[in-house]
Amino acid sequence: MLRKGIALAALGLAFLAGPALSATHPKEPRDVSWGFEGPFGKFDQAQLQRGYKVYREVCSACHSMDLVYFRTLAEKGGPFYDPKYPNPNDNPYVKALAADVQVNDIDSETGDVIQRPATTADRFPAPFPNEAAARASNGGAYPPDLSVITKARSGGPAYIYSLLTGYVNPPAGLTVPAGAYYNPYFPGDLTAYWSGDAHHVPPGGTLAMPPQLAPDKVTFDDGTKSTIDQQAKDVTAFLTWAAEPKMIERKQFGFGAMIYLLLFSVLLWFSYRRIWRNVAH
Amino acid sequence: MSGHSTYEPKTGFERWMDMRLPVIRLAYDSVVAFPTPKNLNYWWTFGGILALMLGVQIVTGIVLVMHYVPHVDHAFASVERIMRDVNYGWLIRYMHANGASMFFVAVYIHILRNLYYGSYKAPREVLWIIGCLIYLVMMATAFMGYVLPWGQMSFHGAVVITNLLGALPIVGESITTWLWGGFAVDNPTLNRFFSLHYLLPFVLAGLVGLHIWALHVPGNNNPLGVNVKSSEDTVPFHPYYTVKDGFAISIFLILFASFVFYNPNILGHADNYIPANPLVTPAHIVPEWYFLPFYAILRAIPDKLGGVLAMFGAIGVLFVLPWLDTSKVRSMRYRPTARLYFLIFVLACIVLGLCGAKLPDDPVIPGVGGGFQLLDANINSYVWLSRVATAYYFAYFLLVLPILGLTEKPLPVPESISAPVLSHPATTPAGAVASPEKRG
Amino acid sequence: MADTVVGENPDPHASGASSSEGDPNRRDFIHIAAGAAAVGAVAALAWPMIDQMNPSGDTLALASIEFDLSKVAEGQQVVVKWRGKPLFIRNRTPQQIAAAIKDDGAPMPDPQPDEARHKPGKPEWLVLVGTCTHLGCVPTFGGGDYGGWFCPCHGSHYDVSGRIRKGPAPKNLEVPTWDFVSDTKIKIG
Prior knowledge:
The complex is a heterotrimer of chains A (about 280), B (about 450) and C (about 190). Chain A is mostly helical and about 280 residues long. Chain A has eight helices and four strands, in the order H-H-H-H-E-E-H-H-E-E-H-H. In chain A, helix 6 (about 155-165) runs antiparallel to helix 7 (about 230-245). Chain A is globular, with a radius of gyration of 25 Å. In chain A, about 35% of the residues are buried. With about 450 residues, chain B is mostly helical. Chain B folds into two domains: about 30-285, Cytochrome Bc1 Complex, Chain C; about 290-410, no CATH class. In chain C, about 20% of the residues lie in helices and about 25% in strands. In chain C, the strands form three sheets. In chain C, strands 5-6-7-8 form a four-stranded antiparallel sheet, with no helix packed on it. Chain C has a three-stranded antiparallel sheet with strand order 1-10-9, with no helix packed on it. Chain C has a three-stranded antiparallel sheet with strand order 2-3-4, with no helix packed on it. Classes of the chains: A mainly alpha (about 280), B mainly alpha (about 450), C alpha+beta (about 190). The interface between A and B is large, with 53 and 57 residues.
């Protein structure tokens, strides 16, 4: 009886479980199969490299990535990991990449603020010194830090990819305010801006970021065709890696742990049966 | 059943120790020789699982504190530093965060087990009350722990819950200011939550000690609900239940591991990866899943103070349960009518949990246009569903159990634990194991 | 696998019934295996708890630093922070080098030739950990009787090679692992 009840409850759960809805809701993110998904997922290092390039050349103009250091790029599993340099601080390619970027520092003799080439120990520099400056340069909107963006948005990588590739012209009847851009994947409620049928408000919302990707905007060093779709996929993979550089290590550790736990359970099961063999219970 | 100790020190060291501080004797009496009913089923393994989870949370927590910075400007980044730079930091952090959820999974199953088998009934009332205190302290600890990463949900969840105290008449506002250490949730709040979050688990450990002590006076309950009559009915805790608990723990760990390694963020909320911003409220503030039923009860009552009282009342009613249930029969195995009501109670709790995750005005059955307005909301809304479920929750404790105990006709209860096993298998009560060969 | 229920029920409490197959305390292989697996699981979990106290990624990132020698004029010293401690990078004059070599055979608490304390062919560059080997104070530049460094805390005198000559310090100033990565750049650590 109890067992039946639990099955019923589980069914009820399946029925009612679902995201909370606001008056309108954005389009469901496009379903893409990512190489890093699943218990045996892996990042494609070439894709991560392309993604870094997209971030560096397109996104970093407005978006900081405060929690990522240059040395992270050279860590195991990262875009520029080289097994010859297990210590990420020694990786010459990443040292060169870092040196291409200027960071703030204090002159140790005069105390003035100066700019110097970054080293592997430095974080990715922020494009603006603080939030107020960022808002002032972006019409009052604050470009969010991208360090953990794929974990900070429901939908994760699928959402980021859909957002970047999802810009469309607003449908007739939708008034988009100046400085805003319509995107059906961005959460929002457009009822107030819609002059059409009240039961068919367009999905999505408006955001202050215009479409950023364009064909061939970033030249990929490995010759991959630089379509918007490719750029979006690559930068999404890079951002997913940056949000959790240890993801693959976690899954690999998990595989070992699960095998061990399964074996452990089997051993304990037999031990248990042996102990209880002669006790009527 | 607490009785005469059967410990006999074997080695010289044991004799020496036994004369000075009989801890080995205590350990032997409590977890080795302790006579435990031999018919306990797997629902009884959750006590051991809970003890393990408390240990896991304390160990991972102490280790996390070596790296965490309890300051509003550094908390979020320090957690990310743990995830990225601290050796195995990602493992320790995910174990701690998901361990809290697993802790609550186990405690809810443990509580439901007690409700079903009547483990709260005499002479185990104090044991039950200590358990309720443990549950309260667990909730306080979990709430404060969730604030520490200082994400959007951490911050705004803290704002919502601490603002509840403002509902108390006269003293509400001063208590809230006192709790905040300021005019809003800010750095002083974070620091004191950190201090208390470190303290309370050790209070928990002490309560658990009392809990086990209170258990060992009458001894464990069992699925039949009948008292232990003789040593025929029991087996020593070790190795019978140490190994059985060990097996249950390893299965539980598989579930725990599947979250930690393959879906560590699914029980959380994406908004908590956004650093806290007092000026921006998330579209949808929700607590962690284990608080959702109480959140639903809180929002079910339209009055702020009423909601707070109902929410705390939902926990408070548990404390007096031993005196609400009038049944002379302990285990619901022999109370078929009560079992039905219990099942609905479990469903009501699940429904409350689901309601807690939804917006109160959202329709339960979407797309259905009509539905009439009842008082302050449409009948087809989650707030009304919450009200129905809340009503049942309280009715179960305050009406069903008191009345049912007096009016129901229970099934005949076996004479003793050994009796159903020794009698003909056909007459064994449903669920009792007739022949070990048939078991899984 | 189990016995039937009526009658054949050896009392699990009976001690000394070691002839019974049902004695659960017998050291069966399966129990040993399960126990060993439990110990293994605890050990596998204990290691991350211990390793997390080892230096983390950001600490290790600053474990080695690079320095541009063109910043140090002849006869001068620059102090940089390395691994949380002060590092002396000194550009010695020819006279100082000669004086250091001359004292190679002099009696001192921790004898060491000057040659062993610099890179071959570049005797002017001294890289030393700026912590007095007595109790850890930072010696001052140029002071003391030997023109090297002087520790004001308890009066240790170091010569221009960084060797302890007088005072309570037991060892010479430590030479860390360092090397040239180019003519003007060195890497320490």
